[in-house]
From TrEMBL:
GO terms for cellular component: ciliary transition zone; membrane. The gene is Tmem80. The chain crosses the membrane at residues 13-35, 47-66, 78-99, 111-134. It comes from Pheucticus melanocephalus. It is found in: Cell projection, Cilium; Membrane. It holds the Pfam family Transmemb_17. It is a multi-pass membrane protein. InterPro entries: Uncharacterised_TM-17. This is TMM80 protein. Keywords: Cell projection, Membrane, Transmembrane, Transmembrane helix. GO terms for biological process: non-motile cilium assembly.
Amino acid sequence: NNSSQLSSLPLHILLYVNGVYYTFYFLATLAMIIYKSQVFSYPDDFLAPDLAVLFLMAILEVPRLYLGFKGNLTEAEVPLGLSLGLTVGSVLLCVYLLLWQSYVLWADVLLNAVLLAAYGLESGLKVTAIAAFVS
């Protein structure tokens, strides 16, 4: 049997863990934005962009994870590459929530740091998998 399996088990596990973690991240960040809007004098024109970034990130996360799983399991570089591209968008939105949202609590820093670390690790595994698929 000459066939070799190129799909990455560590990438598959990390995509799954990221899906679970992102659900927790979204709910925790949403709860904190609601909390901050009640406790602090949250300027109305800043509440909408912070929420919009969080929801845009959630919308990006679905195709990002789907394409990651699909590309890895079918050993196809195009969906994996698209997932990698969406990860770049998610990283930028995560950095916004880490640095530029109206109020950044220590919990925001912690949640976003874990998410950025996961995105970084996942991106490295995607690049490695793409390299294995095209070679």
